[in-house]
Amino acid sequence: MTFALRSPAFADGERIPQRYSRDGENLSPPLQWQDAPAGVKSFALVVEDPDAPSGTFRHWAVYDIDAQRDILAEGTTAGAKTESLGHGINDFGNPHYDGPQPPPGHGLHHYHFKLLALDVETLHLDRKAPVDEVMKRAQPHILEQAELVGTFERN
């Protein structure tokens, strides 16, 4: 089997439902994965929009996800912090998920949910580390990557 990332809320290449956008409830979508590679010690998840007018826009990073997990529930970053997940600072300046909100009329945007299987238990990041720093720190530790792409457009 192949390391795969899925969501019960939308299929790969399909539209992200409104509730997961900043115009909706701004909840992180439920995510599930399977067939992680041997030797994985933790996971990191990054969500990026390469179609943003100013270049790649980073919407979310969660890291130090326990290797035994295979799911992030809907609204993982909403409300009180219930576990020791690390959260990167996104390009909105927030340490949580912020969903799609492309400029009206800018066309279809693609949101890349990238799940990284890592060979380390922790990335040892500062609590205020930006999403791009999460990616840089994770890069040399990636065993395998799974990706799910959702789309969103505002008229």
Automatic annotation (TrEMBL):
Basic and acidic residues bias spans: 14-25
Gene Ontology molecular functions: protein kinase inhibitor activity
InterPro entries from the UniProt entry: PEBP (IPR008914), PEBP-like_sf (IPR036610), YbhB_YbcL/LppC-like (IPR005247)
Pfam families for this protein: PBP (PF01161)
UniProt-annotated stretches for the region Disordered: 14-33
Keywords per UniProt: Protein kinase inhibitor
Presence of keyword Transmembrane helix: no
CDD domains named in the record: PEBP_bact_arch
Claim: Ribosomal protein is one of the keywords in the record: no
UniProt-listed Gene3D superfamilies: PEBP-like
Protein name stated in the entry: YbhB/YbcL family Raf kinase inhibitor-like protein
